[in-house]
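Hey team,

Filing this mostly as a record. A colleague (T.K.) asked me to run one chain through the structure pipeline before their review meeting, and I want the input and output archived in the tracker in case anyone asks later how it was produced. No errors, nothing strange. Just documentation.

Input sequence:
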Amino acid sequence: MRRGLKYVPPALLLLALLELTVFVLVGRGVGFGFAVLLVFAASLLGLVLLRREGMRAWRGFRAAVESGQPPGRQVTDGLVGLLGALLLALPGLVSGVVGLLLLVPPLRRLAGAGVRRATERRVSSMVAGDLFGPRRVRVRRGAPQPTPPPQQPPVTEPGRAIEGEIVEPGR
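Output structure:
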């Protein structure tokens, strides 16, 4: 986890440069006034959706807990929706487009599945089971794979030690 943190400042710098470049290109194409209006409208929409997605995530989490089902799917769906609304609320055209894409249902499910897989890899299987319920495992049918023959213990001379034991003659 800490290894990845060293890439955050350069990534933020590249994102800022990308946002600025896209803004200038869009401004040249459609006019800077319209580009500023577009960024402002996207940020306003993101702020409105941030509240809606937050309430939706909370209701889904509470409904899952009250019904006794694992809340992981509702939590990941809510987190992806909140991230999309937050990216849309940030001033910028690139972040707005990414945020808008995260709010489209098929892409939201895809991103939620990625979040679930990443979470399942990082937590114990017991915690993952509590969060997301039992895992579905695909079993492929086919010819069984041959198992390797068991390894024979090494043969030693009498009186010589193996892994802390002494082999005596006649035993």
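Quick notes for T.K.: The first helix runs from residue 2 to 5. The two ends are 54 Å apart (CA to CA).
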